[in-house]
C-alpha cells in the first residue's frame, strides 16, 4: 500500500440497462411478471405521471418552482419520478425498445421538424 | 495516420446526461425554455403517457404483445416512449433531480417494503 | 288535505346544472375559486381519471368486471367517478360549455363518421 | 291545424340517462360493446382527459381563460369534453354506477370534511 491518491473517478451512478435488469429481477423474485403486460405497464405509467402532476396541480408558478426546497415535497417528487421511470423502463424491456436511442432519434427528427429560426 | 484498427469499443449509445444536455440546447435554441416550468412539463409528461396508453387501449393482450411486429405501430411506440422520456428528463433538469439515482433509491426502498416471500 | 296518495313520482335525482351550482357554492364558500383556472381544472381532471384507472390497472378482465361486488372497491369506484365528474363539470362552468349538449352533438357527428355497416 | 302557438317550453336538452342509452345503442349497432370492459373504458377516459389537458398545457393563464373566444379551439374543447363524458358515462353504465348521485354524495362528504371556516 502507498500514499498515492487514486485518480478521482466520478461515481457514474446507475445506468439505464442496470436499472432495467434490477427491475426485472425485482419483479421475477415476486412473481409479478405476469402482471407486466404492455397494456398494464402503459396504464401504470399514466397513473404515476398523474401522481407526479398532482404535486403541482394547485401550485402557483412560484410555488412550483420552489417545490424542491421543502424536504417532504422534494422526497415526493423524487419518489414519483422514480415510479414513472420504473414503468417506462419496464415497458421498454417488455417491448424491446431502447428508450435512450428512441429519444436520440426523436431529437434528430425534431431538429428537422422545428428548424432554428 | 496508420492502418491500425481501433480496439472494438461497443457503441454505448447516448447517456441520460447527454440527452438532458441536448434537450436543453434544443429548447434554448428555440426560446422554448420559458414554457418549461415544472407544472407545464408535468402536464406534458402526463399527456404523452396518455398518448402511449392510447396505442394499447382497445387491444387484446395478444395484440398488445405483438405491437412491435408491425413497423408502423412500432414506430409510434418508440415515438411516444421518446416523448414521455423527453418530458421526464426536462422536468428532472429543471428540478435538479437525478432520475437514475431516484429510481435506484426507490428500488432499494421497495426491496424492504415488499420482501421476497 | 286529504288521504289520497300522491301518484308515484320517481325521484329523478340531482341534475347536472344543480350539481354545477352546488360545486360553485362549495368552492365559493371556501375561497377556492382562485385555484379553479381552466388549466388547473383540466390537470385535476386528468389526475382523477388516473386514480380511477389505478383501481383497474392490475386486475384481470374477470376481476375488473367484478369490482362492484366488493363494498370497499365499489365505494372507491363511486368516489373516483365523482371526482372526475366534479372537475369536468367545474371546467365546463368556467368555460361556459354545456357538457350534455357537447356530448349529444358529438354522438351525432360520430353517427356520420362511423356509419352502421 | 291551427295558428295557436305552442306554449313556450324551454328545451331542457338531453339528460344523462338519455345520453347513456344513446351511447349504448351506438356501441351495440357497431358491435363495439366487446371492447367496453371497465379497464378499457377507464383507460380511454384517462387518454381523453389527457387530450383535453393538452389544449391548455403550454398556455399562459390569460390565454387559457380566453380559449373559448377562438372558434377552432372552442370546438376542440367541446369535442374533448364530450369524449371524456362519453367514456365516463359508458364506464358508469357497465359498472351500474349512477354518476350524478355519486357526485351528490361526494359533495355531502366533502362538506363535512372541509367545513366552511
UniProtKB/TrEMBL annotation, chains A, B, C, D:
Pfam families: MazG-like. This is Nucleotide pyrophosphohydrolase. It comes from Kitasatospora saccharophila.
